[in-house]
Specification:
about 240 residues; alpha/beta; six-stranded mixed β-sheet; 7 helices; 6 strands; about 50% helix; globular
């Protein structure tokens, strides 16, 4: 089985959206396009926001992803765990589709015998090492996130180190919301490494509102643009080989 390309939006936020369209509805669009939406809610020790927690759950479920509520000091390990867990979940879905084509529509990994299930999970693990990862990180830069940004930066560095130990390729992109002049702004264009984060994070400006829906919409557009770029490069390579 060929190693898949796994597309993830990783949304890091600490509050409810308060501008633009419903983020859960946008997350559902992403999920339908094969882009998993994972959400990490970053809280202070004394924060309890039921509305925010409910929104986080709605976004991740609509986008077929995973949600975690975490205190800032636990963010780094949570980012790694969520990213890898979502990767495994996506690959298991791909394998289940293959099993259904072979054995019937109702067959899944859980239906196999323990021995066969172990063999299949080894395949899932191998595919996880070889898969191409495309991760677009959406960072909430509303005013209440100001003192949490150093922790977010550290968490993303650790994520890069963790994923770069894999055999497969990784691509990262980072956007913040709200931006300086618009709802969403590119912080870092698609890159294989996150080495430039230190200089990038120093330039971030904090805003007073949280346009989560528009941020997710922009993330979808970025994946679509990258896919179009891949097709254009492939067509150019084919043209050069045939002339």
């Amino acid at each position: 089985m060929q190693a898949p390309t796994i597309k993830q939006i990783l949304l890091i936020t600490d509050g409810c959206s308060n501008k633009g369209e419903d983020p859960a509805k946008v997350a559902a669009v992403a999920g339908d396009m094969g882009i998993t939406v994972n959400v990490i809610g970053v809280l202070d020790q004394d924060e309890i926001d039921d509305q925010g927690i409910k929104e986080i759950e709605n976004i991740s479920r609509a986008g077929g992803g995973i949600e975690q509520i975490v205190y800032a000091e636990k963010l780094s390990q949570t980012v790694q765990m969520v990213t890898r867990q979502a990767m495994t979940q996506t690959i298991q879905g791909v394998v289940n589709k293959q099993l259904q084509q072979i054995f019937g529509k109702t067959t899944a990994i859980e239906d196999l015998s323990p021995e066969k299930r172990g063999e299949v999970m080894e395949v899932v693990e191998d595919l996880g090492e070889m898969a191409r990862m495309e991760i677009l990180v959406l960072i909430d830069t509303s005013a209440s996130m100001s003192h949490k940004l150093p922790t977010v930066k550290e968490a993303l560095f650790d994520l890069s180190i963790s994923l770069n130990s894999r055999t497969g390729n990784n691509l990262y992109s980072i956007f913040s919301f709200p931006g300086k002049r618009k709802d969403v702004e590119m912080v870092l264009d698609w890159t294989e490494r996150l080495d430039s984060l230190a200089s990038v994070f120093a330039k971030l400006e904090m805003g007073g509102f949280t346009p989560t829906g528009p941020a997710l919409r922009e993330a979808i557009k970025q994946f679509a643009a990258m896919q179009q770029s891949k097709r254009s490069n492939t067509d150019e390579s084919f043209y050069e080989e045939t002339i």
